[in-house]
C-alpha cells in the first residue's frame, strides 16, 4: 500500500476562508490528498481541507466546499431619520 496522505498546494492556503457546507469561517491550514478508505485492499483518495476556526479547533471539509471569506461591509451607525432636520 502507498502513503496514506500527501500535501497539496492551494491558492487560499493560510488565508481566511469559509466552509460553504457549514458556514464556518477560519484559516485554511492545509490541503491534503488523503486515503480515506477503511479497507486494506481498496484505496479511496480524497482532497481534504483543514480549516482552523476562531476557537482554535481544526476541522476538515471537502476542498470543493472552500471559498474565500471576504470582509463584510459595515453599516452606517447613527443615521438621522427622514423626519429630523
Overall residue-averaged pLDDT value = 86
What's the shape? elongated
Cα-based radius of gyration, to the nearest Å: 20 Å
Q: Which structural class should the secondary elements be placed in?
A: mainly beta
User: Helix segment count?
Assistant: 0
Q: What oligomeric state do these chains adopt?
A: single chain
Determine the N-to-C terminus distance.
Answer: 77 Å
- Helix/strand order, N-terminal first: EEEEEE
Poorly predicted runs of 5 or more residues: none
Please report which band the strand proportion falls in: under 5%, 5-15%, 15-25%, 25-35%, 35-45% or over 45%. 35-45%
Main sheet summary: 6 strands, antiparallel
Q: Considering DSSP H and I runs of 4 or more, what fraction of the residues is helical?
A: under 10%
Amino acid at each position: 500500500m502507498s502513503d496514506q496522505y500527501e500535501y497539496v498546494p492551494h491558492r487560499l492556503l493560510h488565508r481566511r476562508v469559509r466552509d460553504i457546507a457549514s458556514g464556518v469561517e477560519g484559516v485554511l491550514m492545509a490541503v491534503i490528498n488523503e486515503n480515506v478508505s477503511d479497507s486494506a485492499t481498496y484505496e479511496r483518495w480524497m482532497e481534504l481541507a483543514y480549516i482552523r476556526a476562531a476557537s482554535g479547533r481544526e476541522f476538515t471539509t471537502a476542498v470543493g466546499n472552500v471559498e474565500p471569506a471576504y470582509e463584510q461591509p459595515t453599516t452606517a451607525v447613527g443615521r438621522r431619520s427622514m423626519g429630523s432636520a
